[in-house]
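Assess this:
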Amino acid sequence: MAAEQEPFTFKVLTVNIHKGFTTFNRRFMLHELRDAVRSVSADVVFLQEVLGTHAKHSDRHANFPQNPHYEFLADEIWHQFAYGRNAVYDNGHHGNALLSKFPIVHYQNHDVSIAGPERRGVLHCVLRIPGRETDVHAICVHLGLAENHRRQQLMRINDLVNNDIPKGAPVVLAGDFNDWRGRAHEILDKGCGLHEVFIQANGEAARTFPAKMPVLRLDRIYVRNADAHAPIVLPKKPWSTLSDHAPLAAELTI
Protein backbone atom coordinates (compact mmCIF):
# COMPACT_ATOMS: atom_id res chain seq x y z
CA MET A 1 0.00 0.00 0.00
CA ALA A 2 1.44 3.39 -1.04
CA ALA A 3 2.34 5.79 1.75
CA GLU A 4 0.06 8.80 2.08
CA GLN A 5 1.71 12.01 0.89
CA GLU A 6 2.21 14.96 3.21
CA PRO A 7 -0.04 17.99 2.50
CA PHE A 8 1.53 20.60 0.25
CA THR A 9 0.60 24.30 0.47
CA PHE A 10 1.17 26.97 -2.17
CA LYS A 11 0.00 30.55 -2.68
CA VAL A 12 -1.96 31.88 -5.65
CA LEU A 13 -2.66 35.43 -6.81
CA THR A 14 -5.06 36.67 -9.48
CA VAL A 15 -5.23 40.20 -10.90
CA ASN A 16 -6.49 41.95 -14.02
CA ILE A 17 -3.54 44.22 -14.83
CA HIS A 18 -5.37 46.46 -17.35
CA LYS A 19 -2.50 46.19 -19.86
CA GLY A 20 -0.13 47.87 -17.38
CA PHE A 21 -2.05 51.15 -17.22
CA THR A 22 -4.03 52.87 -14.48
CA THR A 23 -7.76 53.51 -14.85
CA PHE A 24 -8.60 55.39 -18.08
CA ASN A 25 -5.02 54.67 -19.25
CA ARG A 26 -3.71 57.78 -17.47
CA ARG A 27 -0.32 56.35 -16.51
CA PHE A 28 1.81 53.39 -17.50
CA MET A 29 2.43 51.51 -14.23
CA LEU A 30 3.88 48.14 -15.20
CA HIS A 31 7.15 48.66 -13.29
CA GLU A 32 5.30 49.52 -10.07
CA LEU A 33 2.91 46.64 -10.71
CA ARG A 34 5.82 44.21 -10.99
CA ASP A 35 7.11 45.30 -7.58
CA ALA A 36 3.66 44.87 -6.06
CA VAL A 37 3.15 41.41 -7.57
CA ARG A 38 6.56 40.33 -6.25
CA SER A 39 5.68 41.53 -2.75
CA VAL A 40 2.83 39.00 -2.49
CA SER A 41 5.29 36.06 -2.82
CA ALA A 42 2.78 33.95 -4.72
CA ASP A 43 3.86 30.66 -6.24
CA VAL A 44 1.34 30.87 -9.08
CA VAL A 45 0.06 34.14 -10.57
CA PHE A 46 -3.03 34.39 -12.78
CA LEU A 47 -3.00 37.52 -14.97
CA GLN A 48 -5.66 38.98 -17.23
CA GLU A 49 -5.40 41.75 -19.83
CA VAL A 50 -1.69 41.15 -20.36
CA LEU A 51 -0.05 42.78 -23.37
CA GLY A 52 1.98 40.52 -25.60
CA THR A 53 3.05 43.46 -27.74
CA HIS A 54 1.87 46.94 -28.72
CA ALA A 55 3.78 48.95 -31.32
CA LYS A 56 2.38 52.41 -30.52
CA HIS A 57 2.75 52.13 -26.72
CA SER A 58 6.40 51.23 -27.08
CA ASP A 59 6.92 54.44 -29.08
CA ARG A 60 5.05 56.65 -26.59
CA HIS A 61 6.47 55.37 -23.29
CA ALA A 62 10.22 55.43 -22.68
CA ASN A 63 10.02 52.71 -20.01
CA PHE A 64 7.82 50.37 -22.06
CA PRO A 65 9.43 46.88 -21.99
CA GLN A 66 10.65 45.47 -25.27
CA ASN A 67 9.78 41.91 -24.23
CA PRO A 68 6.20 40.70 -23.65
CA HIS A 69 4.70 41.94 -20.40
CA TYR A 70 4.27 38.45 -18.95
CA GLU A 71 8.01 37.87 -19.39
CA PHE A 72 8.77 41.27 -17.86
CA LEU A 73 6.59 40.49 -14.84
CA ALA A 74 8.00 36.98 -14.45
CA ASP A 75 11.61 38.25 -14.60
CA GLU A 76 13.81 36.17 -12.29
CA ILE A 77 11.06 35.19 -9.84
CA TRP A 78 8.78 32.93 -11.89
CA HIS A 79 10.92 30.89 -14.26
CA GLN A 80 7.89 29.29 -15.90
CA PHE A 81 5.18 31.21 -17.73
CA ALA A 82 2.49 30.68 -20.35
CA TYR A 83 0.50 33.16 -22.43
CA GLY A 84 -2.80 32.81 -24.24
CA ARG A 85 -3.28 35.42 -26.97
CA ASN A 86 -6.94 36.39 -27.22
CA ALA A 87 -7.45 39.88 -28.65
CA VAL A 88 -5.42 40.73 -31.76
CA TYR A 89 -5.42 44.21 -33.34
CA ASP A 90 -3.33 46.27 -35.74
CA ASN A 91 -0.75 47.36 -33.16
CA GLY A 92 -0.47 44.20 -31.07
CA HIS A 93 -2.36 41.71 -28.92
CA HIS A 94 -3.28 40.88 -25.34
CA GLY A 95 -4.66 37.93 -23.38
CA ASN A 96 -4.28 35.87 -20.22
CA ALA A 97 -1.00 34.68 -18.69
CA LEU A 98 0.15 32.42 -15.91
CA LEU A 99 3.43 32.74 -13.98
CA SER A 100 4.61 29.71 -12.02
CA LYS A 101 7.44 28.69 -9.71
CA PHE A 102 6.57 25.11 -10.62
CA PRO A 103 7.29 23.51 -14.00
CA ILE A 104 4.54 24.00 -16.58
CA VAL A 105 4.55 20.64 -18.34
CA HIS A 106 1.74 21.48 -20.76
CA TYR A 107 -0.50 24.41 -21.62
CA GLN A 108 -3.25 25.19 -24.08
CA ASN A 109 -5.27 28.32 -24.77
CA HIS A 110 -8.91 27.53 -25.57
CA ASP A 111 -10.84 30.05 -27.66
CA VAL A 112 -14.20 30.59 -25.93
CA SER A 113 -15.26 33.64 -27.96
CA ILE A 114 -18.99 33.53 -28.72
CA ALA A 115 -19.90 36.20 -31.25
CA GLY A 116 -18.92 39.68 -32.37
CA PRO A 117 -15.58 41.42 -31.85
CA GLU A 118 -15.08 40.41 -28.20
CA ARG A 119 -12.37 37.74 -28.04
CA ARG A 120 -12.05 35.57 -24.94
CA GLY A 121 -9.85 32.64 -23.99
CA VAL A 122 -9.31 30.06 -21.27
CA LEU A 123 -5.62 29.32 -20.55
CA HIS A 124 -5.20 25.81 -19.13
CA CYS A 125 -1.80 24.98 -17.63
CA VAL A 126 -0.62 21.72 -16.08
CA LEU A 127 1.81 22.25 -13.19
CA ARG A 128 4.25 19.62 -11.96
CA ILE A 129 4.64 19.90 -8.19
CA PRO A 130 7.96 18.42 -6.98
CA GLY A 131 7.42 15.18 -5.10
CA ARG A 132 3.72 14.92 -5.98
CA GLU A 133 2.23 12.14 -8.05
CA THR A 134 -0.68 14.23 -9.33
CA ASP A 135 -0.27 17.44 -11.33
CA VAL A 136 -2.14 20.67 -10.52
CA HIS A 137 -4.36 22.10 -13.25
CA ALA A 138 -4.38 25.92 -13.26
CA ILE A 139 -6.94 27.67 -15.47
CA CYS A 140 -6.78 31.44 -16.06
CA VAL A 141 -9.91 33.11 -17.46
CA HIS A 142 -11.35 36.47 -18.47
CA LEU A 143 -14.99 35.99 -19.40
CA GLY A 144 -17.25 38.10 -21.60
CA LEU A 145 -19.28 41.18 -20.78
CA ALA A 146 -22.62 39.75 -21.98
CA GLU A 147 -24.38 37.38 -19.59
CA ASN A 148 -25.46 34.92 -22.28
CA HIS A 149 -21.84 34.78 -23.50
CA ARG A 150 -20.56 34.13 -19.97
CA ARG A 151 -23.04 31.30 -19.47
CA GLN A 152 -21.83 29.56 -22.62
CA GLN A 153 -18.21 30.14 -21.62
CA LEU A 154 -18.85 28.67 -18.16
CA MET A 155 -20.40 25.59 -19.76
CA ARG A 156 -17.24 25.20 -21.86
CA ILE A 157 -15.17 25.40 -18.68
CA ASN A 158 -17.32 22.64 -17.21
CA ASP A 159 -16.61 20.51 -20.27
CA LEU A 160 -12.88 21.22 -20.03
CA VAL A 161 -12.69 20.24 -16.36
CA ASN A 162 -14.85 17.15 -16.78
CA ASN A 163 -13.29 15.85 -19.99
CA ASP A 164 -9.63 16.96 -19.93
CA ILE A 165 -8.70 16.77 -16.23
CA PRO A 166 -8.50 13.60 -14.09
CA LYS A 167 -11.24 13.49 -11.45
CA GLY A 168 -8.79 13.36 -8.55
CA ALA A 169 -6.46 16.11 -9.76
CA PRO A 170 -6.34 19.49 -7.98
CA VAL A 171 -7.89 22.30 -10.05
CA VAL A 172 -7.54 26.06 -9.58
CA LEU A 173 -9.70 28.30 -11.76
CA ALA A 174 -9.05 32.02 -11.30
CA GLY A 175 -9.45 35.35 -13.05
CA ASP A 176 -11.90 38.07 -14.02
CA PHE A 177 -15.34 36.51 -14.49
CA ASN A 178 -17.29 39.74 -15.15
CA ASP A 179 -20.05 37.91 -13.29
CA TRP A 180 -21.64 40.75 -11.39
CA ARG A 181 -24.85 38.76 -10.81
CA GLY A 182 -23.05 35.82 -9.25
CA ARG A 183 -24.42 33.21 -11.63
CA ALA A 184 -21.10 31.38 -12.08
CA HIS A 185 -21.06 29.80 -8.61
CA GLU A 186 -23.96 27.42 -9.17
CA ILE A 187 -22.98 26.65 -12.77
CA LEU A 188 -19.44 25.62 -11.80
CA ASP A 189 -20.48 23.83 -8.60
CA LYS A 190 -23.14 21.68 -10.24
CA GLY A 191 -21.32 21.38 -13.54
CA CYS A 192 -17.84 20.27 -12.43
CA GLY A 193 -17.56 20.54 -8.64
CA LEU A 194 -15.61 23.80 -8.41
CA HIS A 195 -16.11 25.93 -5.27
CA GLU A 196 -15.23 29.59 -4.76
CA VAL A 197 -12.76 30.14 -1.91
CA PHE A 198 -14.20 33.41 -0.55
CA ILE A 199 -17.71 31.95 -0.45
CA GLN A 200 -16.35 28.96 1.46
CA ALA A 201 -14.53 31.22 3.93
CA ASN A 202 -16.86 34.21 4.25
CA GLY A 203 -20.20 33.20 2.74
CA GLU A 204 -19.88 35.56 -0.23
CA ALA A 205 -17.53 36.40 -3.09
CA ALA A 206 -15.11 39.30 -2.63
CA ARG A 207 -15.80 42.81 -3.93
CA THR A 208 -13.04 43.73 -6.37
CA PHE A 209 -14.26 46.40 -8.82
CA PRO A 210 -13.59 49.26 -9.07
CA ALA A 211 -10.42 48.90 -7.01
CA LYS A 212 -10.62 52.33 -5.33
CA MET A 213 -14.10 51.56 -3.92
CA PRO A 214 -15.04 47.96 -4.74
CA VAL A 215 -18.71 47.27 -5.32
CA LEU A 216 -18.87 44.44 -7.85
CA ARG A 217 -17.73 40.86 -7.17
CA LEU A 218 -16.03 40.19 -10.49
CA ASP A 219 -12.80 38.36 -9.65
CA ARG A 220 -12.78 34.84 -8.26
CA ILE A 221 -10.70 31.84 -7.22
CA TYR A 222 -12.41 28.45 -7.58
CA VAL A 223 -10.90 25.13 -6.52
CA ARG A 224 -11.56 21.41 -6.69
CA ASN A 225 -9.61 18.76 -4.73
CA ALA A 226 -7.84 21.53 -2.79
CA ASP A 227 -8.41 23.31 0.52
CA ALA A 228 -8.20 27.10 0.69
CA HIS A 229 -6.84 29.07 3.64
CA ALA A 230 -6.90 32.78 4.41
CA PRO A 231 -8.25 34.17 1.12
CA ILE A 232 -7.72 37.93 1.05
CA VAL A 233 -8.46 40.97 -1.06
CA LEU A 234 -5.16 42.79 -1.26
CA PRO A 235 -5.12 46.30 0.29
CA LYS A 236 -6.05 49.45 -1.63
CA LYS A 237 -2.53 50.82 -1.19
CA PRO A 238 -0.78 50.39 -3.51
CA TRP A 239 -3.11 48.22 -5.60
CA SER A 240 -5.87 50.73 -6.32
CA THR A 241 -3.29 52.94 -8.07
CA LEU A 242 -2.04 50.05 -10.21
CA SER A 243 -5.21 48.55 -11.71
CA ASP A 244 -8.96 49.00 -11.80
CA HIS A 245 -9.41 45.53 -10.25
CA ALA A 246 -8.43 44.58 -6.70
CA PRO A 247 -6.25 41.44 -6.65
CA LEU A 248 -7.17 38.28 -4.75
CA ALA A 249 -4.81 35.85 -3.04
CA ALA A 250 -5.21 32.59 -1.18
CA GLU A 251 -3.15 29.71 0.21
CA LEU A 252 -4.17 26.31 -1.16
CA THR A 253 -3.36 22.88 0.27
CA ILE A 254 -3.42 19.69 -1.76
In short: The radius of gyration is 17 Å. Helices lie at 30-40, 55-60, 69-74, 147-164, 184-192, 197-202, 236-239.
